[in-house]
């Protein structure tokens, strides 16, 4: 990880782009300008990872996967192992996204296993945490603490990335206030330091981030970057976001 990096821009493409669309996107992305103030991580579908790694001729982005199997190897139909990602030169892997938790019933215990597997293979896990709309009305900081407690291994001496993604904010166009994001960011850092003795943590915000609010969120909350879903599919928006990073 580049120590001069100021902001991460993690593009979570979900299941949106075909292989051809992914290649077209990257060919255009390769013509944009970047500097070290921004680290862009493209997280395409598994089927496009190989091509996207190969197209990184100017070395301007990193590549991540959207998930990985909780098993290291064996007879697990339909699964992708961490070694497969490692051999494709994937540097990051998104784990515990709320869509995995909700639609595939992934629990904290499984997410922690995936985090351990990723770290062992040298990939950087981007661990997603976040509260639902109903949990928001109660003590949602407690909900986030439980996710951190149960998903993050103890005493790590490696960098981890935590993405705070309130579930009610994903794809809704609604975001928490800057103060609320700041409060969660501080809580994550303090909690991991106190309970897990982890100091090297980058905190991202995710949920309805776009070119319209990216810079304001960065300035007003001090997070280390954003995990971006739908806006990351739109190259014009990504261009604007990267321009912000460039001129910061
Ligand atoms: P969104 O998704 O930016 O479309 O809200 C974010 C995410 O799911 O990671």
Would you give an account of this structure?
This protein is α/β, with parallel strands linked by helices and about 250 residues long. The chain contains ten helices and eight strands. It has a single domain (about 5-245), classed as TIM Barrel (Alpha-Beta Barrel), CATH 3.20.20.70. About 40% of the residues lie in helices and about 15% in strands. Strands 1-2-3-4-5-6-7-8 form an eight-stranded parallel barrel, surrounded by six helices. Helix 1 runs parallel beside helix 2 and helix 7 packs across helix 8 (about 180-195). Bound molecules: 2-phosphoglycolic acid (PGA). 2-phosphoglycolic acid binds near residues 208, 227, 230 and 231.
Number of domains: 1
How much of the residues is beta strand, in percent?
Answer: 15-25%
Strand count, sense and barrel status of the largest sheet are: 8 strands, parallel, barrel
By secondary-structure content and strand pairing, the structural class works out as: alpha/beta
Helix fraction by DSSP (H/I, runs of at least 4): 40-55%
CATH topology: TIM Barrel
SSE topology string: EHEHEHEHHEHHEHEHEH
Say which CATH homologous superfamily is assigned.
Aldolase class I
User: Alpha-carbon distance between the termini?
Assistant: 20 Å
Specify the CATH class.
Alpha Beta
CATH architecture assignment: Alpha-Beta Barrel
